[in-house]
From TrEMBL:
Native species: Chengkuizengella marina
Listed transmembrane segments: 376-396, 408-426, 432-452, 459-480, 502-521, 528-546, 581-602, 650-668, 680-699, 705-722
SUPFAM superfamilies: Alkaline phosphatase-like
Domain of life: Bacteria
Protein's recorded name: Uncharacterized protein
Keywords assigned by UniProt, alphabetized: Membrane, Transmembrane, Transmembrane helix
Entry keyword Transmembrane: yes
Length: 733
């Protein structure tokens, strides 16, 4: 079988030659709304850039933070914290009667180098990030450029008017944190009132002084990086509530046209050895309201061919991450990336089939998924908990007459993940249509399956779910990437591979399917069944662990443990007939060691191109190189995320409810497990192996509670079905 994963084989280097000047234009408030066909018709420069550049959509979510966090994170190369009261100032600017030079000297110490921009509160930035789990190095981008003798400039601001020295809170000067050095210094530029001009008809009575900034660019030295922040769009949206819709639209068009003219002047003035990056550190409030959170990222130079961008961080066509900005800027100057930066160089896609118009449609799909996910999943999780509780009450009360009523609801819980996978193929449709599709298909299949025997139903649903998730993943994971049960590109939780929700479903359904096959073929075809199941297990494990496929370390370890225990107990019964805690401990240690070996082979030995190393491979490389602190930081981060999800995630309720169901059957009625062990031996093997796997995934994954919740239902629901039909003949059919 040939596995085709486009993102892995289609990217080229970001740039082949060193650039003389790199102009980075930051436009806070810019979103993909401004790149509609209608809007671009009146914005010739933006239209030119959109059609003739390399374009991507950038995730700028920093732990739910604000624009200040974004800028400082872009400069550190890892998620970093900042505050709105940490501001860059021109050296001679005064605050409360005190110059920026005096303020910096008091907080940090005397300046011994010539600079024009300082961040007096730089020490506070270090304090805010002292316990940062990413081991943040403040100003690493600017420091690296400085050490490599690059000139650094910054112009522009988001100030709320021509502010007085006393109006410190109205100064919005966080952009400099992107390119300052580790001391909070920038050699050249101007972020003060000279970059603005008074206009009483504009928000806060000012607008950007485009002509003045453009004149400054003419005197910029060679071998330089220039950051320009254009704040007019940001100011307009901050002030939006006070405008009539008609007036706001008029001003919006004026602001965009002025931006467009300025960009046109820069493009015309660029030399062949120069390049420009246009990006937005934060979308405006209208885009936020409709969950359009990915921001435009455009790269242009005179030699470029149009196309899309990607990176090894995302492995998604047209999608890049904020952590990729620093290594990409360094690459433009042919400067190596320091180890403290976690991102990867942004690369150009080589695919004639996908262009900016395809990207716009893809972003709409991602937007639809993000809008639909809370509506559908929160409702489904609530429904799941209610069905499990009612079913357990039926069992406790012995209400066997209610079996025909409750069975379709239990079936629906097992069918729903598969339907959610199919929904990925319709992600371009409206949320309403997708919800109708989900309800209609789930209800229809649930009603159909109630006429099957329990064994047949569990076998068909579990194997269909496992097989279709696996095949979708092996063929590029289109459905999974666009499913509400998949991962979330919009918030940067995961960009590629298999997410923890579907990972739990895949392992749980695979284990249940293997259990059913073993039960059905226990007396016949046992040898054939044994090796067919083993081969299928190996394919699933390979998919989960391969860096160009599932890329899920926790899932790989969980699958190895779960499947190994299930297979050994099914086909090596004598070996485990007298198993005790010591043998189980040794077995667990062996399986854990095997898991690490498998991950090492898949993510290091098989990968020769370091640009394609996954996050798992980077972690293992860090471990082998003796960077134990990196592994400790990863472990702490996983524990903290898991603990947070346990407290706030709706999935924790599913996990706890399922756990109550399992515990009930273990403790009461007395002797139930002994009877089931004799009557349904293979079931008990599958249930115990999956339960052990659930425990494993809970502790080793950063969102283990999510995977555990989607996995444990493949124990709880079959148990309920078995008990509800325990005295009937249907189970044995």
């Amino acid at each position: 079988m040939i596995f085709l994963v486009f993102d892995e084989i289609s990217a080229s280097t970001f740039t082949e030659s060193e650039k003389n000047k790199v102009i980075v234009v930051s436009i806070p408030g810019l979103s993909f709304n401004e790149f509609s066909k209608e809007q671009l018709q009146v914005l010739p420069s933006l239209s030119f850039l959109f059609e003739q550049s390399k374009v991507g959509a950038m995730n700028v979510r920093i732990n739910g933070g604000n624009i200040d966090d974004v800028y400082v994170s872009l400069g550190a190369g890892v998620p970093t914290k900042s505050r709105s009261d940490i501001k860059a100032l021109h050296l001679d600017e005064k605050v409360d009667g005190e110059s920026a030079y005096e303020k910096y000297a008091r907080y940090v110490g005397s300046l011994h180098e010539k600079v024009e921009i300082v961040v007096p509160e730089i020490s506070l930035l270090y304090e805010l990030n002292e316990d940062n789990r990413y081991q943040t190095q403040i100003g690493l981008l600017g420091e690296t450029l400085k050490q490599n003798e690059k000139n650094i400039y910054v112009y522009g601001n988001r100030d709320r008017g021509i502010v007085s020295n006393e109006s410190h809170n109205e100064k919005k000067r966080s952009s400099a944190q992107m390119i300052m050095d580790k001391k909070g210094l920038i050699s050249y530029g101007n972020i003060g009132k000279q970059t603005l001009t008074i206009n009483k008809k504009r928000p806060f009575s000012v607008q950007t002084n485009y002509q003045w900034i453009f004149e400054q660019l003419k005197s910029v030295k060679n071998n330089s990086m220039i950051l320009i922040e254009l704040g007019d769009l940001d100011r307009l949206y901050v002030d939006k509530l006070y405008y009539s819709p008609a007036r706001f639209y008029q001003l919006q068009q004026e602001v965009l046209k002025e931006l467009d003219e300025f960009l046109g002047e820069i493009i015309n003035d660029m030399n062949p050895e120069d390049s420009m990056i246009l990006f937005s550190p934060q979308v405006h409030r209208d885009a936020k309201e409709v969950k359009l959170l990915l921001t435009p990222f455009i790269y242009y130079d005179k030699q470029i061919t149009p196309g899309l961008l990607t990176s090894s961080t995302t492995k998604r066509t047209g999608i890049v991450s904020h952590v990729d900005m620093a290594p990409s800027l360094l690459k433009l100057f042919q400067t190596s990336t320091p180890s403290g930066i976690m991102g990867n160089t942004i690369m150009a896609e080589e695919n004639d089939q996908k262009n900016v118009h395809w990207l716009v449609e893809e972003i709409k799909k991602i937007q639809n998924i993000y809008q639909l996910r809370p509506k559908l999943l929160y409702s489904f999780v609530t429904y799941e908990v209610i069905v499990l509780i009612i079913s357990l009450l039926f069992v406790i009360k012995g209400l066997r007459q209610g079996i025909p009523f409750i069975k379709p609801f239990l079936f629906s819980l097992l069918i729903a993940p598969l339907v959610m996978l199919w929904m990925g193929y319709f992600s371009g449709l409206s949320s309403l249509i997708q919800i109708i599709f989900f309800l209609a298909v789930t209800i229809l299949l649930s009603m159909m399956f109630q006429y099957f025997s329990i064994i047949s139903m569990l076998t068909i649903i579990s194997f269909s779910t496992s097989f279709m998730i696996l095949m979708d993943g092996l063929l590029g994971a289109y459905a999974m990437k666009h499913s509400v049960l998949g991962y979330d590109v919009m918030i940067g939780a995961r960009y590629y591979g298999i997410g923890n929700e579907f990972m739990g479903v895949l392992i749980g359904s695979t284990a249940l399917a293997a259990t059913m096959f073993f039960h059905v073929t226990y007396l016949k075809y046992n040898r054939l069944t044994k090796w067919l199941i083993a081969v299928y297990f190996l394919i699933v494990i390979f998919y989960l662990g391969a860096p160009f496929l599932g890329t899920n370390a926790g899932g790989t370890i969980t699958a190895i443990v779960t499947f190994s225990i299930l297979w050994i107990k099914c086909f090596k019964e004598k070996w485990v007939s007298s198993i005790h805690w010591l043998k189980f401990t040794v077995l667990s240690a062996i399986l854990g060691f095997i898991s690490l070996i498998v991950l090492w082979i898949l993510n290091d030995v098989m990968i020769t191109d370091q640009n394609k190393v996954s996050h798992i491979g980077k972690a293992m490389n860090g471990l082998f190189s003796g960077n134990v602190q990196q592994i400790i930081d990863i472990a702490i981060r996983k524990i903290s995320i898991n603990w947070l999800l346990i407290r706030v995630s709706a999935w924790s309720k599913v996990f706890l409810t399922s756990l109550v169901v399992i515990v009930f059957f273990v403790l009461k009625p007395n002797g139930r497990f002994k009877k089931w062990h004799d009557k349904y031996y293979s079931f008990m093997i599958g249930f115990s192996a999956t339960t052990i796997g659930t425990i494993v995934v809970f502790f080793i994954n950063d969102s283990g509670i999510v995977a555990a919740a989607t996995m444990i239902v493949y124990v709880a629901i079959p148990m309920l079905l078995l008990k509800l039909n325990d005295k009937g003949r249907e189970v044995e059919n």
